[in-house]
Amino acid sequence: MSPESTTPTPTPPAGTRDEAPQFVLPLVVRLERAAPPARTDALETAARAVLVLLGDERAHGDGAWAGAVRAWEDARIRKVVRRARGSEWRRTEALPGITVTGTSAEVRVFPPVPLDGWPRDLARLQVSGTELDDPEPPVAPDPARPVLWLNPELEMSAGKAMAQAGHGAQLAWWALPETERAAWRDAGFALAVRTAAPAGWGRLAGSGLPVVRDAGFTEIAPGSCTVVADHPALRASGPAR
């Protein structure tokens, strides 16, 4: 699993983002040897975890995490996915953060930290060497539910895809008006993550929906489109497929 970043942010221009102090949003997926999560569920749970943190009152105003979140959003929106099991996972639960649970996956998200200032119990966790599978092919998503569409032309590790799904969810959150954000929050940030059909990817990427373009630090070329965030409230003329 690898550190990722994405270019779009809601405020400063690119040059300013590069000059700002760099922060990172840590996510830790629970990965017990006997019961690893399904890949799609892990991706969806990671995306929901990002949204849960963004919607948490501690991330706004005078909240305990608000300063770190603002500093993170003013720089490049980096996310790092690490894995933990057993006592490692229990140590992460003692740190300030939020655990989000899916059907088979558990992901804990933490307030942003400086790129070179990770808490010791997170810094020691492994980043690479994890692959996840789906025991059964994912079912078609509900058309009324937000869908984060993965680029079918790219090979991404589980950690890479989890970070990219988180980016897509964040771009959708930024693009929504407050009323739609509240409705999504009230629905538990329901969403699906699916790989787009190759024949429909071009239409999706050019549909005007939020698109994640990778910074190219790991695995894929800079500027690659990795995710399209297809939220029903952002569709101009119905869902592009």
What does this structure look like?
- The protein is α+β, with helices and mostly antiparallel strands and 241 residues long.
- It has a single domain (14-234), classed as Bit1 (3-Layer(aba) Sandwich).
- The chain has eight helices and nine strands.
- It has helices at residues 14-19, 39-55, 66-74, 86-93, 120-123, 158-175, 178-186, 198-205; strands at 23-30, 78-84, 98-101, 106-109, 113-114, 147-150, 192-195, 211-213, 225-230.
- Strands 1, 2, 3, 4 and 5 form a five-stranded mixed sheet that branches.
- Helix 2 (39-55) runs parallel beside helix 6 (158-175).
- The chain is globular and about 45 Å long.
- It starts with 13 loop residues before the first helix and ends in an 11-residue tail after the last strand.
- The model is unreliable at 1-12 and 237-241 (pLDDT under 50).
- Residues 1-21 are annotated as: Disordered.
- It comes from Streptomyces monashensis.
Main traits of this protein?
disordered C terminus; 4-stranded mixed β-sheet; 8 helices; globular; disordered N terminus; Bit1; 241 residues; alpha+beta; 5-stranded mixed β-sheet
Provide the fold topology.
Layout: H1 14-19, E1 23-30, H2 39-55, H3 66-74, E2 78-84, H4 86-93, E3 98-101, E4 106-109, E5 113-114, H5 120-123, E6 147-150, H6 158-175, H7 178-186, E7 192-195, H8 198-205, E8 211-213, E9 225-230
Parallel strand pairs: 1-2, 6-7
Antiparallel strand pairs: 1-4, 1-5, 3-4, 6-9, 8-9
